[in-house]
From TrEMBL:
It is an enzyme of class 2 (transferase). It catalyses: ATP + protein L-histidine = ADP + protein N-phospho-L-histidine. Its EC number is 2.7.13.3. Residues 187-403 form the Histidine kinase domain. The chain crosses the membrane at residues 20-44. It comes from the Bacteria. Keywords: ATP-binding, Kinase, Membrane, Nucleotide-binding, Phosphoprotein, Transferase, Transmembrane, Transmembrane helix, Two-component regulatory system. Pfam families: HATPase_c, HisKA. This is Sensor-like histidine kinase SenX3. PANTHER family: SENSOR HISTIDINE KINASE GLRK, TWO-COMPONENT HISTIDINE KINASE. Coiled coil: none annotated. GO terms for molecular function: kinase activity. InterPro entries: BphY/WalK/GraS-like (IPR050351), HATPase_C_sf (IPR036890), HATPase_dom (IPR003594), His_kinase_dom (IPR005467), HisK_dim/P_dom (IPR003661), HisK_dim/P_sf (IPR036097), Sig_transdc_His_kin-like_C (IPR004358).
Length: 404
């Protein structure tokens, strides 16, 4: 198993490309649909006007003039054309609705399985009723709807493809800019790492010499602050370098024992926790907690979580790392502290880059927890944060178990 090539930014670019393509497709499809609706409405209006004109002309001409094709006329007890009229003609119940001279009623009815436009008119006391068969009009409507359905489908396919290609051309420069940014971050972090390590080492030596000298306590404290500052700067550079590596060629995954990493991380932070009078421990049931992952990345995750917990736990508090197997497919690791906690509504904001907390020692500038989420999601896992102001916080990681 490998980390997916393409980090969160790459996935966001792909998602943006799909969204742009989808929006273009929706707009074009809606335009074609609206055009079809307008054309269909114009067709129906024209057909109705044509039928009404034809029926009015037929009634005016009377029985002496043969009506156009598909038209029947009943007037004064006779009808035209001659021959047996279709079943249901005339519709005498409509006669009562045109009692006065000049009254006209037009409606659509189905008679014997055929749809007709019926015009009933009172002319000089004589009621005439003309029928216009809509069979050809309905065929025209069906043909138009079929054509528009085909055009809509073709427009949808063409707009999706065109939108996807255009969105790719638009987003490509942004992707290149992000790639160059990641390359710069990786190169700058790599070049800064060695001199920062030397600077931190010399600061530590200077601190030890200052403690054994007769320098004023204020100077010794400032040297200690210098050591802490160089260490923090080194951690930020490590975070940037790890983030850049995870965005590059996907590293090879291997089975990682989370229990061992937890023990190592706790041991590495034991001295600092003791200096702050904070008790730190690991709790596990002795089982196997093997997950597929990158050891260096997961070690940095645990280090960042413990660093965050120590920085926000006051003297006399406790930090507990707990491992468990909630089901047959997953492994969970929780880091719980009795520190200052946080409002639960702020849980999502904790993982934003450079989001800084309002409590604790304020050493971290949010890059650590942002990187934690990035690494965890890159491993196919999840991370959840729960906290209560003044009652501590708990960060829970869940990973898929490694296949034996």
């Amino acid at each position: 198993m490998k980390l997916a090539r393409g980090d969160q930014e790459t996935r966001e670019l792909r998602r943006a490309r799909r969204l742009v393509a989808g929006e273009i497709a929706v707009v074009i499809t809606l335009l074609v649909f609206v055009s079809g609706v307008i054309a269909f409405a114009v067709l129906i209006g024209g057909q109705r006007a044509e039928a009404d004109r034809t029926l009015a002309w037929t009634i005016r001409q009377g029985l002496t003039v043969p009506p156009p094709g598909c038209v029947w006329l009943f007037s004064g007890g006779g009808h035209t054309p001659l021959g047996e009229p279709p079943a249901g003609m005339p519709v005498t119940e409509i006669f009562a609705r045109v009692p006065a001279d000049g009254d006209v009623v037009t409606e659509t009815r189905e008679l014997g399985g055929v749809v007709y436009t019926i015009r009933t008119e009172n002319r000089g006391g004589i009621i005439s009723q003309a029928f216009f068969e809509q069979v050809y009009q309905l065929q025209d409507r069906y043909s138009l709807l079929t054509g528009f359905a085909i055009a809509e489908a073709l427009a949808l396919v063409a707009s999706v493809l065109t939108g996807y290609l255009l969105a790719g051309r638009v987003i490509r420069p942004l992707g290149e800019a992000l790639r160059r940014q990641r390359t710069f971050v990786a190169d700058a972090s790599h070049e800064l790492r060695a001199p920062l390590t030397r600077l931190h080492t010399r600061a530590q030596l200077l601190s030890r010499r200052a403690r054994g000298s007769e320098l004023p306590p204020r100077v010794v404290a400032e040297v200690d602050q210098l050591v802490g500052g160089t260490r923090e700067l080194g951690e930020v550079v490590d975070d940037l370098l790890l983030s850049a590596r995870l965005r590059a060629e996907a590293p090879r995954m291997e089975p990682v024992e989370l229990g061992e990493l937890a023990e190592q991380a706790v041991a590495a932070e034991a001295v600092r926790a003791e200096q702050r009078n904070v008790r730190i421990s690991v709790s596990a049931d002795g089982g196997a907690y093997v997950v597929p992952g990158v050891p260096t990345a997961l070690r940095r995750v645990l280090s960042a979580l413990l660093d965050n917990a120590i920085g926000h736990t006051p003297p006399g508090g406790t930090i507990e790392v707990t491992l468990g197997v909630p089901d047959d497919r997953h492994v969970e690791l929780s880091v719980r502290d009795t520190g200052v906690g946080f409002e639960q509504r702020d849980a999502a904001r904790l993982f934003e880059r450079f989001a800084r907390g309002h409590d604790g020692d304020g050493r971290r500038f949010g890059l650590g927890l942002a990187l934690v989420r990035e690494v965890v999601t890159g491993h196919g896992g999840t991370i959840a944060a729960r906290g209560t102001p003044g009652a501590g916080a708990t960060f829970t990681l869940r990973f898929l178990r490694a296949v034996p």
